[in-house]
Design brief:
The protein is of the alpha+beta class. It is built from ten helices and ten strands. The strands form three sheets. It has a six-stranded antiparallel sheet, sandwiched between helices.
Amino acid sequence: MVSRRSLAATAAQNSDARLAALFADARINPDSASPRFLQVCLAIRERIQSKQLLHGERLPSEAEIGAWFGVSRITARRAVAELVGMGLAERQRGRPPTVNFQSTRQRGAIEDLLQNLLVLGERTTVKVIEFAYVPASPSIAAALEVPQGEPVQHVLRMRLDDGQPLSLIETFVPADLGRRYERADMEALSLQALFRRLGVQVARAEQSFTACLALGREARLLGVEAGAALFRVTRTVYDQGGRPVEHVTSLYRSDRYEYQMSLVRAGGTWKRA
Protein backbone atom coordinates (compact mmCIF):
# COMPACT_ATOMS: atom_id res chain seq x y z
CA MET A 1 0.00 0.00 0.00
CA VAL A 2 1.29 3.44 -0.92
CA SER A 3 1.50 5.73 2.10
CA ARG A 4 0.16 9.27 2.20
CA ARG A 5 3.69 10.50 2.75
CA SER A 6 4.83 8.76 -0.43
CA LEU A 7 1.93 10.25 -2.42
CA ALA A 8 2.71 13.70 -1.06
CA ALA A 9 6.37 13.33 -2.00
CA THR A 10 5.43 12.28 -5.54
CA ALA A 11 3.05 15.23 -5.88
CA ALA A 12 5.78 17.60 -4.69
CA GLN A 13 8.24 16.17 -7.22
CA ASN A 14 5.71 16.62 -10.02
CA SER A 15 5.09 20.21 -8.92
CA ASP A 16 8.84 20.91 -8.85
CA ALA A 17 9.25 19.48 -12.36
CA ARG A 18 6.33 21.53 -13.68
CA LEU A 19 7.73 24.75 -12.25
CA ALA A 20 11.17 24.00 -13.67
CA ALA A 21 9.66 23.46 -17.14
CA LEU A 22 7.55 26.60 -16.82
CA PHE A 23 10.63 28.72 -16.14
CA ALA A 24 12.97 26.88 -18.52
CA ASP A 25 13.17 29.97 -20.72
CA ALA A 26 13.39 32.44 -17.83
CA ARG A 27 15.88 35.22 -18.47
CA ILE A 28 16.67 38.74 -17.37
CA ASN A 29 18.27 41.43 -19.47
CA PRO A 30 21.39 42.64 -17.63
CA ASP A 31 21.58 45.66 -19.94
CA SER A 32 18.03 46.79 -19.20
CA ALA A 33 17.36 49.96 -17.23
CA SER A 34 14.65 48.02 -15.40
CA PRO A 35 15.85 46.69 -12.00
CA ARG A 36 16.50 42.95 -11.86
CA PHE A 37 13.95 42.35 -9.13
CA LEU A 38 11.29 44.04 -11.29
CA GLN A 39 12.20 41.94 -14.33
CA VAL A 40 11.85 38.78 -12.22
CA CYS A 41 8.63 40.03 -10.66
CA LEU A 42 7.06 40.83 -14.04
CA ALA A 43 8.13 37.48 -15.52
CA ILE A 44 6.42 35.62 -12.67
CA ARG A 45 3.44 37.96 -12.84
CA GLU A 46 2.98 37.16 -16.53
CA ARG A 47 2.83 33.44 -15.75
CA ILE A 48 0.29 34.10 -13.01
CA GLN A 49 -1.98 36.30 -15.11
CA SER A 50 -1.84 33.89 -18.06
CA LYS A 51 -2.80 31.10 -15.61
CA GLN A 52 0.32 29.08 -16.22
CA LEU A 53 0.74 29.41 -12.45
CA LEU A 54 -2.59 28.59 -10.84
CA HIS A 55 -4.35 30.00 -7.80
CA GLY A 56 -3.09 28.25 -4.67
CA GLU A 57 0.02 26.85 -6.36
CA ARG A 58 3.33 27.55 -4.68
CA LEU A 59 5.65 30.18 -6.09
CA PRO A 60 9.23 29.26 -6.98
CA SER A 61 11.50 29.40 -3.95
CA GLU A 62 14.20 32.05 -3.60
CA ALA A 63 16.80 29.41 -4.46
CA GLU A 64 14.88 28.36 -7.59
CA ILE A 65 14.40 31.96 -8.72
CA GLY A 66 18.10 32.60 -8.19
CA ALA A 67 19.10 29.55 -10.23
CA TRP A 68 16.61 30.04 -13.06
CA PHE A 69 17.00 33.80 -13.49
CA GLY A 70 20.66 34.07 -12.47
CA VAL A 71 20.00 36.56 -9.66
CA SER A 72 20.90 36.76 -5.97
CA ARG A 73 18.58 35.55 -3.22
CA ILE A 74 18.14 39.14 -2.09
CA THR A 75 16.83 40.01 -5.57
CA ALA A 76 14.61 36.92 -5.55
CA ARG A 77 13.23 37.84 -2.12
CA ARG A 78 12.40 41.37 -3.25
CA ALA A 79 10.66 40.07 -6.39
CA VAL A 80 8.44 37.82 -4.27
CA ALA A 81 7.75 40.70 -1.89
CA GLU A 82 6.59 42.79 -4.86
CA LEU A 83 4.20 40.03 -5.93
CA VAL A 84 2.80 39.87 -2.40
CA GLY A 85 2.42 43.65 -2.41
CA MET A 86 0.52 43.46 -5.73
CA GLY A 87 -1.88 40.95 -4.18
CA LEU A 88 -0.79 38.24 -6.63
CA ALA A 89 0.80 36.08 -3.94
CA GLU A 90 0.29 35.49 -0.24
CA ARG A 91 2.43 34.26 2.60
CA GLN A 92 1.35 31.82 5.29
CA ARG A 93 3.40 31.01 8.35
CA GLY A 94 5.41 27.83 7.89
CA ARG A 95 4.57 27.51 4.18
CA PRO A 96 6.10 28.87 0.96
CA PRO A 97 4.30 31.80 -0.74
CA THR A 98 1.42 30.75 -2.98
CA VAL A 99 -0.35 32.28 -5.98
CA ASN A 100 -3.35 34.43 -5.13
CA PHE A 101 -5.05 35.18 -8.44
CA GLN A 102 -8.55 34.38 -9.64
CA SER A 103 -9.43 36.54 -12.62
CA THR A 104 -13.01 37.43 -13.41
CA ARG A 105 -13.95 36.97 -17.04
CA GLN A 106 -16.47 39.44 -18.41
CA ARG A 107 -18.10 39.25 -21.80
CA GLY A 108 -20.12 41.69 -23.87
CA ALA A 109 -18.51 45.12 -23.93
CA ILE A 110 -15.03 43.70 -23.39
CA GLU A 111 -15.46 41.58 -26.52
CA ASP A 112 -16.22 44.77 -28.44
CA LEU A 113 -13.03 46.26 -27.02
CA LEU A 114 -11.00 43.29 -28.23
CA GLN A 115 -12.51 43.49 -31.69
CA ASN A 116 -11.88 47.23 -31.76
CA LEU A 117 -8.21 46.66 -30.97
CA LEU A 118 -7.90 44.13 -33.77
CA VAL A 119 -9.66 46.34 -36.32
CA LEU A 120 -7.42 49.23 -35.31
CA GLY A 121 -4.44 46.98 -36.05
CA GLU A 122 -5.69 46.42 -39.59
CA ARG A 123 -5.48 50.18 -40.30
CA THR A 124 -1.85 50.57 -39.26
CA THR A 125 1.49 49.82 -40.89
CA VAL A 126 3.66 46.90 -39.82
CA LYS A 127 7.40 46.45 -39.38
CA VAL A 128 8.87 42.97 -38.92
CA ILE A 129 11.53 42.99 -36.19
CA GLU A 130 12.28 39.28 -35.88
CA PHE A 131 11.54 36.30 -38.15
CA ALA A 132 13.03 32.96 -37.13
CA TYR A 133 12.38 29.34 -36.22
CA VAL A 134 12.90 28.54 -32.55
CA PRO A 135 12.36 25.53 -30.26
CA ALA A 136 8.89 25.61 -28.71
CA SER A 137 9.01 26.60 -25.04
CA PRO A 138 6.74 24.71 -22.61
CA SER A 139 4.02 27.36 -22.81
CA ILE A 140 4.13 27.66 -26.61
CA ALA A 141 4.21 23.89 -27.02
CA ALA A 142 1.07 23.66 -24.89
CA ALA A 143 -0.69 26.42 -26.84
CA LEU A 144 0.13 24.96 -30.27
CA GLU A 145 -0.18 21.35 -29.10
CA VAL A 146 3.28 20.39 -30.38
CA PRO A 147 6.15 18.62 -28.58
CA GLN A 148 8.32 20.84 -26.42
CA GLY A 149 11.46 21.80 -28.33
CA GLU A 150 9.91 21.26 -31.76
CA PRO A 151 10.75 24.11 -34.18
CA VAL A 152 8.02 26.74 -34.55
CA GLN A 153 7.96 29.99 -36.47
CA HIS A 154 8.46 33.05 -34.26
CA VAL A 155 7.71 36.51 -35.62
CA LEU A 156 7.86 39.80 -33.72
CA ARG A 157 6.22 42.76 -35.44
CA MET A 158 5.59 46.36 -34.52
CA ARG A 159 2.45 48.21 -35.53
CA LEU A 160 2.90 51.90 -36.25
CA ASP A 161 0.19 54.55 -36.19
CA ASP A 162 1.25 57.76 -37.94
CA GLY A 163 4.83 56.52 -37.75
CA GLN A 164 4.72 56.06 -33.96
CA PRO A 165 4.82 52.69 -32.14
CA LEU A 166 1.34 51.49 -31.20
CA SER A 167 1.79 47.80 -30.43
CA LEU A 168 4.05 44.76 -30.50
CA ILE A 169 2.67 41.53 -31.94
CA GLU A 170 4.46 38.26 -31.19
CA THR A 171 3.21 35.23 -33.13
CA PHE A 172 4.08 31.56 -33.03
CA VAL A 173 2.98 29.27 -35.88
CA PRO A 174 3.65 25.54 -36.49
CA ALA A 175 6.71 25.20 -38.73
CA ASP A 176 4.91 23.30 -41.51
CA LEU A 177 2.59 26.28 -42.00
CA GLY A 178 5.21 28.96 -41.43
CA ARG A 179 7.52 27.61 -44.14
CA ARG A 180 4.83 28.28 -46.75
CA TYR A 181 5.40 32.05 -46.64
CA GLU A 182 8.33 34.45 -46.23
CA ARG A 183 9.30 37.42 -44.09
CA ALA A 184 8.30 39.84 -46.86
CA ASP A 185 4.78 38.39 -46.82
CA MET A 186 4.49 39.30 -43.13
CA GLU A 187 5.42 42.89 -43.97
CA ALA A 188 2.65 43.16 -46.57
CA LEU A 189 -0.20 41.01 -45.24
CA SER A 190 -1.79 40.08 -41.94
CA LEU A 191 -1.38 36.49 -40.83
CA GLN A 192 -5.10 35.91 -41.30
CA ALA A 193 -4.79 37.11 -44.91
CA LEU A 194 -1.86 34.74 -45.42
CA PHE A 195 -3.88 31.87 -44.01
CA ARG A 196 -6.71 32.63 -46.44
CA ARG A 197 -4.22 32.67 -49.32
CA LEU A 198 -2.84 29.30 -48.19
CA GLY A 199 -6.30 27.78 -47.88
CA VAL A 200 -6.15 27.48 -44.09
CA GLN A 201 -9.74 27.74 -42.89
CA VAL A 202 -9.85 29.37 -39.47
CA ALA A 203 -12.83 28.26 -37.40
CA ARG A 204 -12.49 29.67 -33.88
CA ALA A 205 -10.18 31.36 -31.39
CA GLU A 206 -9.64 31.52 -27.64
CA GLN A 207 -8.90 35.09 -26.66
CA SER A 208 -8.22 37.03 -23.46
CA PHE A 209 -7.60 40.65 -22.54
CA THR A 210 -5.49 41.72 -19.55
CA ALA A 211 -3.34 44.57 -18.33
CA CYS A 212 0.41 44.19 -17.83
CA LEU A 213 3.58 46.23 -17.32
CA ALA A 214 6.20 46.89 -19.99
CA LEU A 215 9.46 44.98 -19.56
CA GLY A 216 12.80 46.46 -20.57
CA ARG A 217 12.91 45.44 -24.23
CA GLU A 218 9.19 45.92 -24.78
CA ALA A 219 9.41 49.37 -23.24
CA ARG A 220 12.32 50.32 -25.49
CA LEU A 221 10.59 49.15 -28.67
CA LEU A 222 7.29 50.81 -27.80
CA GLY A 223 8.94 54.02 -26.66
CA VAL A 224 7.61 53.92 -23.09
CA GLU A 225 9.25 53.70 -19.67
CA ALA A 226 9.90 50.29 -18.09
CA GLY A 227 6.93 49.43 -15.91
CA ALA A 228 4.46 51.46 -18.01
CA ALA A 229 0.96 50.02 -18.29
CA LEU A 230 0.06 48.10 -21.46
CA PHE A 231 -3.03 46.37 -22.84
CA ARG A 232 -2.35 42.70 -23.63
CA VAL A 233 -4.45 40.61 -26.02
CA THR A 234 -3.61 36.90 -26.14
CA ARG A 235 -5.22 34.65 -28.72
CA THR A 236 -4.91 31.06 -29.94
CA VAL A 237 -6.48 30.41 -33.35
CA TYR A 238 -7.76 26.99 -34.47
CA ASP A 239 -8.59 25.65 -37.93
CA GLN A 240 -11.73 23.70 -38.83
CA GLY A 241 -10.08 20.47 -37.74
CA GLY A 242 -9.44 21.87 -34.26
CA ARG A 243 -5.69 22.25 -34.78
CA PRO A 244 -4.01 25.35 -33.29
CA VAL A 245 -2.49 27.29 -36.19
CA GLU A 246 -1.44 30.49 -34.41
CA HIS A 247 -0.67 31.74 -30.91
CA VAL A 248 -0.32 35.51 -30.70
CA THR A 249 0.27 38.03 -27.95
CA SER A 250 -0.26 41.70 -28.74
CA LEU A 251 0.89 44.50 -26.42
CA TYR A 252 -0.75 47.90 -26.93
CA ARG A 253 0.43 51.22 -25.54
CA SER A 254 -2.25 52.38 -23.12
CA ASP A 255 -1.43 56.04 -23.76
CA ARG A 256 -2.15 55.72 -27.48
CA TYR A 257 -5.39 53.79 -27.36
CA GLU A 258 -8.71 54.90 -25.87
CA TYR A 259 -12.02 53.04 -25.89
CA GLN A 260 -15.27 54.94 -25.36
CA MET A 261 -18.91 53.86 -25.17
CA SER A 262 -22.28 55.47 -24.45
CA LEU A 263 -24.46 53.99 -21.71
CA VAL A 264 -28.15 54.31 -20.80
CA ARG A 265 -29.87 53.43 -17.55
CA ALA A 266 -32.47 50.68 -18.02
CA GLY A 267 -34.03 48.31 -15.53
CA GLY A 268 -31.75 49.41 -12.74
CA THR A 269 -28.57 48.65 -14.69
CA TRP A 270 -26.32 50.41 -17.18
CA LYS A 271 -26.54 49.18 -20.77
CA ARG A 272 -24.87 50.23 -23.99
CA ALA A 273 -26.80 52.84 -25.93
